[in-house]
Predict the structure.
Amino acid sequence: MYKQFKPLYSRFKELQEQCTKLAEIHGNWEYRTDGQVAIQTDNPTIDNWDAGTGQSKEKTPEWEQSFCHLQPSLKGTVIEDYFKWLDVPVYRARIMMAKEKGCYSIHQDYSPRLHLPLITNIQCNFLLTNPLQMFHLPADGTTTWIDTTRPHTFMNGSTEKRLHLVMIVKE
């Protein structure tokens, strides 16, 4: 199941530019296997662009929710403004890149996710497996809630990278 969570964010282009720049600076995409950059950390005093990235080792809400602090260097930025605009607590926010011609394994997350596509194309699709639903999220500034506690995967069938801002929400 998925649904629009919030309509167009008015500063989407600025947010898209800042996240793309952060991905370029901190992503190290050639060597990172997870394709993630942490926007939130578990320590409010130092930047840690790897905090909470990769597959969840703990698989508990407490672990996921410990990544609740915006990276200190992002305070006062459009990213902080966007989080305030969402008007719900978000956790373990990450910029996630899906490489071209790639697919995740079918899996289930511990909590639902909010997705804000930053760079994508029509050949990038989510697949929920029960009931079967395949859908594309455009990079138009809309934030979408996805019940990723259900079995799902993501496919990038294009020759271009895809970038999303992904955040955990309680429900």
Observations:
- The mean pLDDT is 92.
- The CA atoms of residues 120 and 162 lie 5 Å apart.
- The first helix runs from residue 12 to 26.
